């Protein structure tokens, strides 16, 4: 196979401790290879990267890009696309629409254009896994996967009540295997079932879920334990209870403490870090220092941010009661979809305005998280696309993190009350390119347990982004000079040149197959499809890569 | 780059007759219920038994036979497959304003290729949604929808309103499998734990299954639903509502109070609502009513979709273009405008110059002006049968039948994707295979600069 050489670029590869050193990168068969020992070897193609900044391809560990919820949002929001930039068909690529929720082909092209080569959809009901796979197959270029929602799964709740951790573990593994998913996701554990049953929601970790006689705390600990024992590469991926409510920091803090002894990833942590009184929005304030300190001190935890940016967007969530809450607050159109035995969904359009004290505080709280977690390896960049904003806003977030003055400019124009309700103005930290490379590629890859992503060492997937140096950091990250995906040059000077199909990344944890009949009995009593028609068949996947599990010794 | 998964391995019951095969967990694609618990007995390329199928499903499976037709015809004359592909690719790539239509009775895999073709040639793509629940799709864009999968109805719904539909005859297993009769997780006594209302302009067979029948005057569904919203909110309604709708205020109030007292309710609405006066406003009223009731308890609503995979068509067109139907790709990017780029309207105005029709028969059900125009222009038609549309086609392909002969994916009316387990092979190719070949040929012509326009 032909060799590609990226020559003389300034490389930022944190996993391999390379901080802005001039290096050559050799690529063959889609992977990074050692430089040939024969120095006279000529590559089949060489990119002269002298003066350019080289990073591994970006890894988005939490976004909503495929599946029923995403597609429903597309269907519901034609108004969102009317004035948004269109993706034109070219001789080699398909057309599409953008706005808050781009169509599938557009999603692949836009991520690639931004230098991102891997993305994970964060919330898929296993009953709709097949749908998600179909969409991901139509999402070109990038590698992708998804997390399987199980925080309100009836079988898991039943076994937690029976105090049967082996059955919980079997069900987690069976769900991941059936869906061909990557990670285990909890969304408002117990609260979504409460919404579906008419109980509305659960307010604390210790409120009982009607009909199941268990508490959110049981679900969090039970699934975290199962995920660890199964040796899944990514820890339990947790959307905490009480998202978005003033005063929810106590719930978040309790959740962090409940995860003691387990690995846990707390997602879109920005939305869970609020002080104040839930019945009085004017009391809203940041509680990041308390929570960030706990994260700094407890190495079992990682977070991604869910940064809010000022723009129109569409909120979409597996958190049914949250959808209702947003509908009530905003008065906008609302989709809610309950999935039998396992999940819920809420979709409401939203606009974050810099004239709103609440929205500006949310923006500041997200930035506080980036700046107050000491170890960048424990935090990943995200907007919870499209909830806090589009993934297309990542370059702007990078610029905000690298330039204190830019943050201050926003704060200077912020509504009254913002500055004193958060500590952002006091945070002088500015990210370096090396740290940016960590939170946008290396740490998400590490948190996901992806050995071949997020770095440029020998054997890594040859996902490489080549940036032109620019004093305007946002522009630099918006327009990479080249993007290489698995060794193929997919973007050249802003032009997407590939329509290749990326890989579907999934895991297949081993479990006790004798546990299946019990799951099947329960399934056949309650579902409306046949047990045999539930799992996604391996041959349904067109370009899969199974990521290994590691059972801890 | 799309692929169709090979059919899952089926276990053949080994009896004395070696040809006898039983396919379990097969899926019926006749209506939007997409029941996947079929047990098909197959003998010599014929389905002899269809256990669990309803009367419509039995007709679908048992009457299915392989027609003795050419693989393809050009202008009515038998033609080789290759010639037909070539001609189809010529027609579609030379057209200035081609349309793609149908799609609701084929697999998602085929639908994806059909949208791809429409994109590459810059045509319009539209599905039968535009002539059935299109208004519900528009209402959805106005107010959203509070909905659930059919299993939620089975397990939780203690109050069910059927509106503008006759499921007893259109979706026969809906009552027994999903909505009215089954015992559910939280409804141990099944039918006894549920209250059922039917709202319709006439007393259909479904009325017998309901506890309460509200015979609404024709063309007043909107007024009735809007009055119910008002009553639910405690707004005073004039008793003249009875003259308008045929339902007394007292009766209506009683029903609304019952709905508010339910634990989990659902309104299942049909084309009797969407295709009468008010159209999308009717759907909007129903969706709003269900939404409003969530202030008091849990309520949901769901359109009763007809065709086996019309829900898949909505999904595929949406994920590839951003819009569910009536999509125009002629400017090189997707635009959406029902009425302008919906096929029946566009043909009736005499606008398209070529058509790709997949698994649908517009020559049987479009308006006369639309049919007149469709007959005039070049068309490529894929259908298992010699439909009226296939008879007028420039190029017609005989196809295998999805769910009976081909594997793939279909979406139930509640967006649940379900795999197909075919009963036996057809001598004819699948929609997917034919469309893929057409796409490939069109792309070759485009990339080689062979386009004449």
Detail the poorly predicted runs of chain A.
none
Query: How are strands sequenced across the largest beta sheet of chain B?
Result: 5-4-18-17-16-6-7-14-15
CATH class of the domain at 57-78 and 104-455 in chain A reads Alpha Beta
The main sheet of chain B comes to: 9 strands, mixed
Based on helices, strands and strand pairing, what is the structural class of chain A? alpha/beta
Task: Report the mean per-residue pLDDT of chain A as an integer.
Answer: 97
Fraction of helical residues of chain B = 25-40%
- Which CATH class of the largest domain in chain B applies here? Alpha Beta
Strand content of chain A: 15-25%
Radius of gyration of chain B, in Å, reads 23 Å
Which band does the percent of strand residues of chain B land in?
15-25%
- The helix content of chain A is 25-40%
Structural class of chain B: alpha/beta
N- to C-terminal separation of chain B? 27 Å
Mean pLDDT of chain B: 94
Number of domains of chain B: 2
Account of the protein in words:
The complex is a heterodimer of chains A (553) and B (453). Chain A has 553 residues and is of the alpha/beta class. Chain A has a domain at 57-78 and 104-455: TIM Barrel (Alpha-Beta Barrel), CATH 3.20.20. In chain A, strand 7 (116-124), helix 4 and strand 8 form a beta-alpha-beta unit. The mean pLDDT of chain A is 97. In chain B, the strands form four sheets. In chain B, strands 5-4-18-17-16-6-7-14-15 form a nine-stranded mixed beta sheet, with helices on both faces. In chain B, a hairpin with a 2-residue loop joins strand 4 (72-74) and strand 5 (77-79). Chain B is 36% helix and 20% strand. Chain B is globular, with a radius of gyration of 23 Å. Chain B is built from 18 helices and 20 strands. With 453 residues, chain B is of the alpha/beta class. Chains A and B meet through helix 1, helix 2, helix 3, helix 4 and strand 16 of A and helix 3, helix 4, strand 8, helix 5 and helix 13 of B.
């Amino acid at each position: 196979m032909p060799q590609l050489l990226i020559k003389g670029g300034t490389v930022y590869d944190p996993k391999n401790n390379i901080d802005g050193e001039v290096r050559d990168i050799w690529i063959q068969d889609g992977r990074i290879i050692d430089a040939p020992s024969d120095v006279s070897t000529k590559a089949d193609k060489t990119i002269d990267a002298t003066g350019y900044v080289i990073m591994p391809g970006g890894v988005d560990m939490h976004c909503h890009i495929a599946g029923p919820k995403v597609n429903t949002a597309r269907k519901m929001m034609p108004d969102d696309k009317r004035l948004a930039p269109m993706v034109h068909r070219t001789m080699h690529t398909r057309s599409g629409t953008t706005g808050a929720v781009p169509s599938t082909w557009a999603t692949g092209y836009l991520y690639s254009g931004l230098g991102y080569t891997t993305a994970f959809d964060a919330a898929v009901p296993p009953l709709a896994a097949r749908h998600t796979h179909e969409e991901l197959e139509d999402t070109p270029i990038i590698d992708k996967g998804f997390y399987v929602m199980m925080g309100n799964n009836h079988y898991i709740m039943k076994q937690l009540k029976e105090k049967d951790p082996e059955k919980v573990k079997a069900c987690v593994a069976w769900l991941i295997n059936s869906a061909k998913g990557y990670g285990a996701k909890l969304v408002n554990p117990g609260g979504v079932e409460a919404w579906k049953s008419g109980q509305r929601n659960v307010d604390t970790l210790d409120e009982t879920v009607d009909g199941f006689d268990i508490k959110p705390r049981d679900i969090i600990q039970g699934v975290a334990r199962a995920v660890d024992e199964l040796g899944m590469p990514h820890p339990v991926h947790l959307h905490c209870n009480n998202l978005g409510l003033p005063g929810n920091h106590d719930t978040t803090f309790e959740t962090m403490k409940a995860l003691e002894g387990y690995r846990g990833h707390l997602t879109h942590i920005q939305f869970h870090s609020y002080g104040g009184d839930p019945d009085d929005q004017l009391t809203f304030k940041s509680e990041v220092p308390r929570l960030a300190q706990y994260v700094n001190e407890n190495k079992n935890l990682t977070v991604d941010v869910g940064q809010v940016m000022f723009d129109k967007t569409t909120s979409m969530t597996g958190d049914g009661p949250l959808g209702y809450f947003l509908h009530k607050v905003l008065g906008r159109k609302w989709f809610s979809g309950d999935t039998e035995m396992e999940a819920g969904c809420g979709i409401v359009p939203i606009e974050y305005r810099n004239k709103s004290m609440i929205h500006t505080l949310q923006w500041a709280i997200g930035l506080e998280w980036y700046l107050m977690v000491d170890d960048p390896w424990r935090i990943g960049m995200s907007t919870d696309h499209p909830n806090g904003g589009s993934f297309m806003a990542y370059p702007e977030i990078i610029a905000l993190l690298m330039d204190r003055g830019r943050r201050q400019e926003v704060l200077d124009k912020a509504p009254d009350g913002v500055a004193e309700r958060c500590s952002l103005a006091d945070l002088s930290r500015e990210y370096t390119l090396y740290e940016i490379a960590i939170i946008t590629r290396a740490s998400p890859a590490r948190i996901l347990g992806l050995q071949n992503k997020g770095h440029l060492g020998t054997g890594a997937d040859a996902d490489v982004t080549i940036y032109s140096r620019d004093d305007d950091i946002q522009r630099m990250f918006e327009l990479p000079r080249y993007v290489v995906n698995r060794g193929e040059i997919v973007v050249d000077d802003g032009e997407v040149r590939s329509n290749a199909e990326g890989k579907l990344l999934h895991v297949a944890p081993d479990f006790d197959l004798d546990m299946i009949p019990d799951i099947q009995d329960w399934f056949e009593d309650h579902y409306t499809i046949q047990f045999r028609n539930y799992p996604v068949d391996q041959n349904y996947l067109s370009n899969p890569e199974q990521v290994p599990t590691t059972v801890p010794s | 780059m799309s692929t169709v998964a090979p059919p899952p391995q089926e276990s053949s019951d080994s009896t004395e007759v070696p040809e006898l095969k039983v396919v379990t967990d097969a899926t019926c694609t006749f209506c939007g219920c997409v029941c996947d618990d079929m047990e098909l007995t197959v003998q010599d390329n014929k389905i002899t038994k269809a256990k669990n199928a309803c009367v419509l499903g039995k007709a679908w499976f048992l009457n299915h036979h392989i027609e003795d037709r050419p693989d393809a015809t050009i202008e009515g004359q038998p033609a080789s497959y290759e010639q037909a592909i070539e001609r189809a690719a010529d027609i579609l790539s030379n057209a200035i304003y081609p349309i793609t239509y149908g799609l609701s009775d084929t697999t998602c895999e085929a639908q994806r290729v059909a949208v791809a073709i429409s994109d590459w040639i810059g045509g319009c793509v539209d599905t039968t949604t535009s002539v059935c629940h299109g208004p519900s799709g528009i209402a959805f864009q106005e107010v959203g929808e509070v909905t659930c999968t059919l299993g939620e109805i089975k397990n939780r719904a203690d109050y069910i309103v059927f509106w503008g539909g006759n499921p007893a005859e259109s979706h026969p297993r809906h009552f027994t499998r999903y909505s009215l009769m089954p015992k559910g997780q939280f409804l141990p006594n099944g039918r006894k734990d549920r209250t059922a209302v039917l709202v319709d302009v006439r007393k259909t067979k479904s009325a017998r299954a309901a506890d309460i029948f509200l015979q609404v005057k024709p063309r007043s569904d909107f007024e009735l639903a809007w009055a119910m919203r008002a009553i639910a909110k405690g707004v005073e309604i004039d008793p003249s509502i009875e003259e308008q709708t045929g339902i007394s205020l007292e009766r209506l109030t009683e029903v609304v109070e019952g709905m508010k007292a339910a634990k989990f309710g659902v309104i299942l609405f049909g084309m009797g609502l969407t295709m009468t006066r008010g159209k999308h406003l009717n759907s909007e009223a129903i969706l709003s009513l269900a939404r409003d009731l969530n202030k008091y308890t849990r309520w949901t609503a769901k359109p009763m979709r007809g065709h086996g995979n019309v829900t898949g068509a909505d999904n595929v067109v949406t994920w590839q273009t951003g819009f569910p139907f009536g999509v125009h790709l002629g400017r090189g990017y997707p635009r959406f405008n029902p009425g302008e780029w919906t096929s029946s309207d566009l043909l009736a105005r005499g606008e398209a110059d070529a058509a790709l029709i997949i698994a649908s028969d517009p020559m049987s059900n479009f308006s006369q002006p639309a049919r007149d125009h469709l007959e005039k222009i070049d068309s490529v038609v894929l259908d298992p049968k010699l439909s009226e549309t296939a008879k007028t086609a420039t190029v017609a392909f005989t196809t295998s039948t999805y769910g009976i002969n081909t594997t793939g994916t279909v979406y139930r009316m509640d967006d649940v994707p379900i795999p197909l387990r075919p009963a036996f092979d057809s001598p004819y190719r699948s929609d997917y295979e034919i469309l893929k070949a057409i796409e490939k040929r069109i792309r070759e012509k485009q990339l080689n600069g062979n386009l004449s326009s």
